[in-house]
Give the backbone structure.
Amino acid sequence: MNDKPETESLDSGGAGPGATAANGPIGILTAGGDAPGMNAAIRAVVRAAANAEVYVFGFRRGYDGLIKDLAEPLSGRSVANIVQRGGTFLETSRSDDFRSREGRARAANNLKRRGIDTLIVVGGEGSIVGATAFSIETGVRVFAVPASIDNDIPATDFSIGFDTAVNTALDAIDRIRDTAFAYERVFCVEVMGRDSGFIALEVAIGGGAEAVVVPEIPLNLDDICNRVAESHRRGKRSSIIVVSEGPRTGGVMPVAAALTERLKVNARVVVLGHVQRGGAPTARDRLLASRMGIEAVKAILEGLPSSLIAEVRGEITRIPLVEAATRSRKLDSSLIDLVHQLST
Ligand code: F6P
């Protein structure tokens, strides 16, 4: 089944033997920051489409590739051996051109020329905002599959890549803890998340941190220093403070500087950075991506309007894109208390 070679021509469509254009071709791209599990999502879409005899065109390099028409047919075979790979084999970008109406109109023309009226966008919050505008302006049906290590996409409890990023950061913290304990040191570890503290909070709980700094709550250096000082009074000799990156928190440096100055501890700094974005997706992310990819194709075949594929209380569901855009996603700040309670 479905084993056409990767080299098949545009005319052959690429959905695999038996594929017909009866359902009309669909496009797929990955946009914004890459996230582990994006490949698993593409694979699920392509294979579900092939099973339903729907052609799939992959657009390389995100929305930029849509505007430049960097399309290639994707067969069931062409997505072999990618479920375990991080990043995205379709590549991605943050496209300035797609922010303009003119850029979006060019993208829509390219789709139209190929007879594509439905696009799957695997991407983060910014990419989904772009997808919503694109769909409203051009009438192209868009199905958004949420993928971002930040887990900040409104209307879905989880986005693809978050679980892997948290586990990668936790692995790093476990290693840091070994040396922190051995050397009786204070470590301040900066994690990603942009304007959201979801990664920081889960990593702080799972990593047994003394304190956590998230963008949603104003930085209180007195509180952090007091907590570390108090833990030292109780006999602890090493501590880990998790700090979410970004302009809203000020990042890890001011926290380390305050601890060093006030507690005379020479706090060490580790910035985990893009390490958190790479690597093989966890089982949880592979499963989530596979379920969401399949669901996107199902929703397309059922004739649904533009939708976000979401995980809500464990169920994979669809939410109209315009409705999803009105939702917001809030950090459960009561979990910060958990960090404090558990670090006693
Ligand atoms: O949105 C994902 C993310 O990794 C954020 O956590 C981070 O702030 C940002 O992307 C980094 O973007 P870039 O890879 O463009 O530096």
